[in-house]
Amino acid sequence: MSLYDLFLAPLADYGFMRRALVACLCLSLGCGPIGVFLMMRRMSLMGDALSHAVLPGAAIGYLVAGSLSLTAMGIGGLIAGLSVALLAGVVSRATSLAEDASFASFYLTSLALGVLIVSLRGSNIDLLHVLFGTILAIDSDALIEIGTITSVTLVALALIYRPLVAECFDPGFLRAVGGRGPLYHVAFLVLVVLNLVASFQALGTLMAVGLMMLPAAIAQLWSRTLPVMLAIASVTALLSGYLGLIASYHLELASGPTIIVTAALFYGLSILIAPSGLARRYFPRPHLTG
Amino acid sequence: MSGATTKAAAERGAALTLQNLTVTYDRHPAVHHVSGTLKAGSLTAIAGPNGAGKSTLLKAIVGELRPAEGRIEHGLAARDIGYLPQAAEINRRFPINVLDTVLLGDWHQSGAFGRVARAARERAQEALSTVGLDGFERRPIGSLSAGQFQRVLFARLLMQEARLILLDEPFTAIDARTTHDLLALVSRWHGEGRTVVAVLHDFEQVRSHFPETLLIARELIGWGPTTEVMAPANLLKARAMAERWDETAPVCEPAA
Question: Which residue ranges run through the membrane (chain A) (predicted)?
């Protein structure tokens, strides 16, 4: 088997593989940076919660459309995710519950509701698709949707980069200079939900955050400056997507989980050999003179 | 230039006026019926025992806490106030370098979306060398010691060119050398005609560096020249007042 057969033939031969790869490219460009910011805001688990919150909306979209229509499910998921994000924020400000506690309550409710709604009408196969995604079934419409979300994300991130960094680094300062921190917090949450919806179509609710958090964790192991971290996150997400797709094709594995497992392998490797990883700890380099 | 205009303001009088100010936590007053005037261009220490409402007073002035009663009048925009909180909610592990942190002080010019002017970069460099951190521009925040980090925050305040500067326990857990350098910066601000207020618990520092003092123990005990306010009788009174805490305190009725 030549290198061509191994790495390019699956893409050259099958349209669905090409579309899946383009979807991975879009997802990695959007989700990578979003994941880094989530991690910087210490909201890693919040992303997970939000991805579950997308489910009931997607399920209702599925019921309304009557099939696994990615557009209907995407719109439903967007509405559900945004409402949970905002409701959780409102509840934590209005009561003494911390934001993570109210997020936890909301997302468990959403997950239960979502699975209930899907099981009302659909088969177990459908349920599996909703939970684990259908990256190989992505059609051009869904691809355009994902691409649009990615473009919006990149433009928006470029616009709100400075206030977002200030809000992550020192929210008190931003408040003191009248920088409208909460506004950027909400804008950022909207971006998170948008990207979860995009990623939900490919990887399902249970693993939608996979391409956000794993690359972000890898980036944090390799770099100490934010722009480099953002780039590393995107590149590792793309590499995991591509290698995962190829591996799932040759080994006949489910593609979504294979992509995440590939990212996890990169993560494990990084823990071992990255500058702030284990290797440096057990084989330290000699110290400098000053 | 700006020094001259603030000097002019100093002659006009008040930088800030408190009118019967009460700030509460769960209805218990932390600052109770405090009135008075902060002279423009003055250098004032806020002193008092633990739980006397010193930090609360600063938070009310910057607008983080809303008065339960009374008013704070200062006619300053948010950009004119530089505030250094005690337990800053700063994420020290955030991947940002020293220069970018100091440049945040240029927010009133560059804002959320504007360009950071070359002049601002030069001013940031200057601010860094003023606080004795030449060559630290590219160092990540996470690699600094507590004292160095406090110097960075002072450099950021320097960038802000605020007319009213509020410092909350700025020298707690900071080494003597850094404290000495930063106190010099505080007197420089005073010399430039800015109004500076600092919450301090070290009475020696207050006596030797701050001409005016506001002594508070939830209620105002004294506000004026340090030598008069920090008299032993006042200090004794402050200590006695702060130790009272009444879970079942009745509603405070206005004095007839």
Answer: 20-39, 60-91, 103-121, 142-164, 184-214, 226-247, 259-279
CB contact (8 A) between residue B79 and residue A178: yes
| Chain B contacts in chain A segment 137-156 (CB below 8 A) | none
Range scoring the smallest mean pLDDT among A9-13, B2-6, B121-125: B2-6
Quick one: average pLDDT of A154-182? 88
Residue A99 has pLDDT above 80, yes or no: no
Q: What is the ipTM of this complex?
A: 0.80
Contact assignment for B81 to A176 by CB distance below 8 Å: yes
User: Is residue A23 pLDDT above 90, yes or no?
Assistant: yes
Radius of gyration, alpha carbons of chain B? 19
Q: Bridge partners of B215?
A: B47, B222
Question: For residues B88 and A240, what is the distance between their CA atoms, to the nearest angstrom?
Answer: 39
Average pLDDT score, chain B: 86
Closest CA in chain B for residue A222: B95
Q: Which of A159, A172, A229 sits opposite B89 (nearest CB)?
A: A172
> pTM to 2 decimals?
0.85
The average pLDDT across A99-127 equals 79
Mutate which of B26, B55, B62, B100 to test chain A, going by most A C-beta atoms within 10 A? B100
**H-type alpha helices, A178-254:** 181-207, 210-222, 226-251
- Residue scoring higher pLDDT (B16 or B87): B16
Spans of all domains in chain A: 3-276
- Structurally, what CATH architecture does the domain formed by B1-76+163-256 represent? 3-Layer(aba) Sandwich (3.40)
A42: nearest CA partner in chain B: B91
Report the chain B residue with the minimal C-alpha distance to residue A221.
B95
**Topology annotation, domain A3-276:** ABC transporter involved in vitamin B12 uptake, BtuC (1.10.3470)
